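User: Can you predict the 3D structure for this chain?
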Amino acid sequence: KDYFRLEVDKIIREYFKGFASNISGDFENIDGVEIFVFTVFPSRIFPCFIQGLNGKEFYVRLTTSSEPYSDIEEIVRYCLTHWNSPK
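Assistant: Here is the predicted structure, written as structure tokens:
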């Protein structure tokens, strides 16, 4: 388990740098099977980009999935409406 956690930490630091504190995980036993469950908390302050194979990538969370946004206007519009709106 320690080795697995170390590898998970390494991946999070490499691909999710800058918002690793939004990601946590632990082992859980479900129906007699031990699995590792991740919890990803939303960013409340600014957008988060991940390091993909071809550079930075931006995803928008939908109900049960995430959709990549690649058009810069679409990304800016989403960011302005999501993080710039009065709360």
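Helices lie at 2-15, 72-83. The beta strands are 23-30, 33-40, 50-52, 55-61, 66-69.
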